[in-house]
Amino acid sequence: NMATVNVDDTDTQLNEAISSLNFRSSKRIDLLKEQDLAIKCLLKEKDVLAVLPTGFGKSLVFQVFAVVKSLDSASWNGCVLVICPLKSIIADQIEEASSLGLTAVELESLDMFENLPRLPDILFALAEAVCADGFRDALKKRQDIHLVVVDESHTIETWADDLPNNTTSVA
What we know:
The protein is of the alpha/beta class. The protein is 45% helix and 12% strand. It has eight helices and four strands, in the order H-H-H-E-H-E-H-E-H-H-E-H. The chain has helices at residues 9-24, 33-43, 58-71, 87-99, 110-115, 127-131, 135-141, 156-160, and strands at residues 79-84, 104-106, 122-126, 145-150. Strands 2-3-1-4 form a four-stranded parallel β-sheet. Helix 5 (110-115) links the parallel strand 2 (104-106) and strand 3. Helix 2 packs across helix 3.
């Protein structure tokens, strides 16, 4: 379970994370109100559905969340699992996360997932990997996945029929 975050602490935690990211990164990060709200809801352990335009910076929501949690190492020993429909999206996301000083890895097999001694800040997986036999059981055994993100969720219906085990089971 994620540690409970005091409502008054979310602004402070968010400011510390943005300062940390701005220090690590060559680009200046300023959150838009929708990003700020989504991150605060995640920190309060609420489910979030962020339907925002292309290029809005939805990835920044889970990236900043990972930074906030990593700065509070007493309550964070885990990662964010991001499920993506395409390898090209994963490659771009890993590059972006790395540019922000985050560790990010693509999950290439169930064996890799089960044997990672320490997870990166962000773990990216194709829907096929997540829907593979045994993945959900392995996920339940791990206590270090604290947020699951379905990226490009609007595409699930179009690619679900092409994948084994019907990926509508991602939910």
